Every structure is written in C-alpha cells, then in structure tokens.
Amino acid sequence: MLIETKNLKLIPCDAEILHSAIQGNEFIAHKLNVTVQDNWTEFGIGPLQYSLDKLTESEDEKGWLTYFPIHKHDNRLIGNGGYKGKPTTDGTVELGYEIAPSYRNLGLASEMTNGLIKNAFNDQRVKSIIAHTLREENPSTKILKKFGFEWIEEIYDPDDGFIWKWELKRH
What we know:
about 170 residues; alpha+beta; 5 helices
C-alpha cells in the first residue's frame, strides 16, 4: 500500500518494480515514470534482490519489504527503505532506510521513517520495530531517538562488524 507523507510518496515494490530497479536506473525510471537521482542507493542491488527473493517465496511478504521514496515536488526517486520482512511470530519488524546524499539534511529521512513506523503499527500484529545502525552517534541514531527508539544492545554482524540495535515498542 502506498504511504504518503508531506513531501514523499513511498511506493511499495512488487516483483516487477524490483526487477526494473535491479536492471538499472533507466529501467526503474521508465517503470515508475520518475527521474532517478544519481546515487539514490548506497546499499546497491543486494537488498533489492533479497526483497525479490522473499516476494518470490511468499505473497505474505507483500508490503513488508522495499519501498521507494519519490520526492513529490521533483517526481524523483531519492532513496530506498522499508522492512526486512513481515512481522515475526512475536510481532517484530525491522526497519531500514537511506536517502540520496543531495537530499539529506532536509528532513526527508525523518519523514520517510515516520511514514514507515505509522504504516507498521497500523498492522495489529506489529508489537515492536527494530533497527540497526553503525556503532556511533550519526544522523540515523538521531532519527531513531527522535521517534522514541531505545538503544537495546551492541551486536556483532558478520558483514558490518559491531552495530547497535534499537527498538520502538507499541504503546
């Protein structure tokens, strides 16, 4: 389901949209009828392929994976974000997001995060949202704190080394 905020349309990616994004910027631009910002993703195609694989495995994952933020004024794809999958049996979803460098420090990452939080908590199965950040204070930790996420623990990730885990519980 499309998530709309003041400045963004967060488009939920289906298999066709993900295929287009994996093929390249010109393909996703044509598919969504948008302009694509240079460096719109620093995560690369790995997370897109992950989402495509999860969608292929189960229709239950629909709406619980990748969302593309389209800046309304510019009609431009400016990042990537969403969830790592449907709620777990204990009601947890994991959130992630990124905004292209030239669109940072404009409040758009906060706006996107807020939209994703509200969307997740609209589903009664969701009891908590987790997120992971680098092991240092940075713009992502500020955004998470702003929305009430609490630092839970430091964990070791085989790809990223030591990272921080954050959680926001349903009130």
